[in-house]
Amino acid sequence: RDTDEEAKKYVDQITGGSKDVLDRTLDTGLAGSPETVAQKIKQLESIGINHVLLQLTPALTELQNVKKVLDVLRKIDPDYC
Q: Which SUPFAM superfamilies match (predicted)?
């Protein structure tokens, strides 16, 4: 999603509004604006994590959002990905 607020609304929608699931997803998941997700990925990388598992729902739409995140990561480091 383009903003953290849009991402939160989307996660709320797909989790059925379950506060426990929503909190876990937003706290530990890669949900947020492209900048937020890129920052989370860089934090994971800084502690030695070099792989992430993505669940994309719906897949084609979310692949477009993954591209936005990759674009941000490439701005940070042109050799990224």
A: Bacterial luciferase-like
